[in-house]
Specification:
It is built from no helices and ten strands. It is an all-beta fold and 186 residues long. The protein has a ten-stranded antiparallel beta barrel with strand order 1-2-3-4-5-6-7-8-9-10. Strand 8 and strand 9 form a beta hairpin. The protein is globular and about 45 Å long.
Length: 186
């Protein structure tokens, strides 16, 4: 069992939604603070419970998170499955309930295992099913990250996050974000 803390800063590179111009840009979007209590069921499976606070221009948000994760190793690759539900509370908005599944692979860039001081790549895809105010929606996230395992309890990741959403509701959009995430486990 461990406690994980994450801080993530996000900037928009591209956003084609509604009132946004269909062009490249670089603007701060939000900063997320997350804390998780992770409990290992066995060496390859765990459950976690977390809280989340989002700082953004329109309205800050809070979230409660429940997750189940399973990890498999295949010749130096780490393949991770994550099933997550969360409930988001934003002042002035109805409660948002989401169901998420993420498939990710982690590839060490030096050898077949990841050791402190080494770099790695992460590729992930995550469809998200959302219900808010009686409306159902689907979002998809495709993320490419380069990370460094600083110590056995600290890592830093730089990511490009490509998101598509509003598949069902009007206003299909695509967005490209740059993210920097710092993780600390104790």
């Amino acid at each position: 069992q461990k406690i994980i803390f994450k801080i993530e800063h996000q900037d928009i590179f591209y956003n084609n939604s509604g009132d946004q111009k269909d062009e490249l840009q670089f603007t701060h979007y939000r900063t997320d603070l997350m804390g998780f209590y992770d409990f290992k069921l066995n060496p390859t499976k765990s459950i976690a419970f977390g809280v989340f606070h989002r700082i953004q221009e329109q309205a800050n948000a809070n979230r409660i998170i429940q997750q189940f994760a399973a990890v498999n190793r295949l010749r130096g690759l780490k393949i991770a499955h994550r099933f997550r539900t969360d409930q988001t509370f934003t002042k002035g908005d109805p409660l948002e309930i989401r169901l998420r599944y993420r498939l990710a692979t982690e590839i060490p860039l030096s050898g077949s295992t990841l050791d402190p001081g080494e770099h790695y790549l992460v590729l992930s895809n995550e469809p998200i099913f959302s219900l808010q105010g009686g409306e159902f929606e689907i979002e998809n996230r495709l993320v490419f990250s380069v990370g460094e395992l600083i110590t056995s309890s600290q890592k830093l990741e730089w990511s490009l996050d490509y998101r598509t959403d509003k598949f069902i509701q009007e206003g299909f959009r695509t967005r490209l974000w740059a993210k920097v995430g710092y993780f600390y486990s104790f």
